[in-house]
Amino acid sequence: MQIDSAQLDTFAAVIDEGSFDAAARRLRITPSAVSQRIKALESRLGQVLVQRTKPARSTEAGEALLRLARQVDLLEIEAVAAVKGKVEGLRLPLAVNADSLNGWFLPALLAVPPELVTAFDVRQEDQDHSAELLRNGTVLAAVTADPRPVQGCRVQALGKMRYLSVATPQYAERWLTGRPLAEALAAAPMIVFNSKDMLQHRLLRKVTRRHLDPPVHSIPAPGPFVRALRLGLGWGMLEEEVAAPDLAAGSLVEVANGKYVDVPLYWQHWKLDSAVLDALTTAVLQAAGHGLRTP
To answer: Which Gene3D superfamilies does the record associate with it (predicted)?
Structure first.
């Protein structure tokens, strides 16, 4: 069974843009034509492929088709580039965790030859969840904490990010001094990046061997997260490289001295014969070698 390329492109556009109307504008066709193509594709495959929500999302059945659409699009653009001698319209979707984006990762993008890619579409996603974006076809490659390769992907170890538990001296004096650490941490406010960020909870279990439920502030942006720590809003986990200057200056102190959480990171990308994926992989491995602890 062959899949109509126009229907496949339309399906990917609906998922990318989040609605039939937005997909129609991108493809320069009418919303009615978009709807007809999606219905024809779903009828041909005998499966509902698009959740008619706001935004529109792929169903589980549609994820394999979305992966196919991404792969076909990449290979078609690279084939045309090989003929014409230049890349046109290659926007490469990637998933990277916030701390890697804030640290070692971005130089890798600069190392990819500009003639291989038009633009990067970087999605910020927690390292424990980024593999799902590969699985459902949203991205072509990802920094992930999962060493198990997503079906159809290659995986390579990058190294480890080390996180230290830190707070201001004033915060430590108020909340942590004068009582056992486990007891203090049960009541001391802590800061997390978002609901997916479990680093602080991992440190709690490592130090106390207990499940604690302290007050939690959620600060979902790297810059404000660090600022909140420096202001003394709570304690939290900070990358070793970022924390080092503040620890040396005494503006931050370790909450659990000598305890840390290491997060192994992996690079996963689809198994495609692609010049841009090969070049990006080489650049990512080199940047990780400079910015991460050895695996």
So the answer is: 3.40.190.290, Winged helix-like DNA-binding domain superfamily/Winged helix DNA-binding domain (1.10.10.10)
- Domain at 1-83, CATH class: mainly alpha
pLDDT at 80 over 80: no
* Best CA proximity match to 173, nearest among 239, 255, 279, 82: 255
Radius of gyration of the chain (CA): 23
- Beta-carbon contacts of 139 under 8 Å, excluding residues fewer than 6 positions away, are 93, 94, 95, 123, 130, 133
> Pick from 101, 98, 144, 94: which is nearest to 121 by CA?
94
Q: Is the pLDDT of residue 71 over 90?
A: no
> CATH for 161-263, among 3.40.720.10, 3.40.50.2300, 3.30.450.20, 3.40.190.10?
3.40.190.10
Residue 92 tokens read as: 């490469």
* Rounded-to-integer distance, Cα 185 and Cα 256, Å: 10
Residue ranges per structural domain of the chain: 1-83, 161-263
Please tell me if the domain spanning 1-83 has the same topology as the one spanning 161-263. Answer: no
Decide if pLDDT at 83 tops 70.
no
